[in-house]
Amino acid sequence: TVSALDSELLAALLPSLGLLTEGKSVPLRVVIRPVNAPTAVPGQGTVDASGGLLDPLVRLEWRGVEIDVYALLEDRLARLFTVAADLSLPLGVTLDGCSGVTPVVGDLMGAVTHARVKNSEMLAEPLTVIEDLMPSLLTLLEPQLARGLAAFTIPSFNGFQLKMLAARGIGRVDGGTAYNHVGLYAELLSGGQTCT
């Protein structure tokens, strides 16, 4: 659930939203509901020097995800519309120090396909206007999605610690960019060794 949005972002593209809010800026909430289980497609997993994702380590493919957009109207959240769509979310990881792992969300332009609007009776705009709005709206949500993926530390076990070296796709599928597996490369350190 993402709640750090307001109606001013959408009112320019959806004039009837301005009528509903009486020209005021009201909070919006976006709720992404996966209707079907996602599938994961391993990729190469490369990141640039600044931690930006060049090629996803895993691409989550969600078919038929429903995205609800709510507005705070008359002291309650009212659903403005629902968009059923297919999402393709590129995810990767950056390695921090010896055992820190931080998930990274890639570029979300083009992540929404086959958008179909429903439950939009509160708005006067044609369905195609709302459908065309979804890729841009998802791009606005990218920072919120990234914050939802918390960094973590690989714990030590039985006196050993892993020094993480890389995370990459292994075994390229013939003729494509997908891989068969995701590999985590690490050096095994005994309890007496210090990770630097």
Describe, in plain words, how this protein is organized in 3D.
- The chain is an alpha+beta fold and 196 residues long.
- Helix content is 15%, strand content 49%.
- The chain has four helices and twelve strands; from the N terminus they run E-H-H-E-E-E-E-E-E-E-E-H-H-E-E-E.
- The strands form three sheets. Strands 1, 2, 3, 6, 7, 8, 9 and 10 form an eight-stranded antiparallel sheet that branches.
- A hairpin with a 2-residue loop joins strand 6 and strand 7.
- The chain is elongated.
- The mean pLDDT is 85.
Number of E-state strands: 12
Spatial shape? elongated
Strand content: over 45%
Which secondary-structure class do the elements indicate? alpha+beta
Element string (H = helix, E = strand): EHHEEEEEEEEHHEEE
Computed Rg: 21 Å
Instruction: Indicate the percent of residues in helices.
Output: 10-25%
Mean pLDDT: 85
Describe the sheet with the most strands.
8 strands, antiparallel
Distance between the termini: 38 Å
Summarize the structure.
With 196 residues, this protein is an alpha+beta fold. The protein is 15% helix and 49% strand. Strands 1, 2, 3, 6, 7, 8, 9 and 10 form an 8-stranded antiparallel sheet that branches. A two-stranded antiparallel ribbon has the order 4-5.
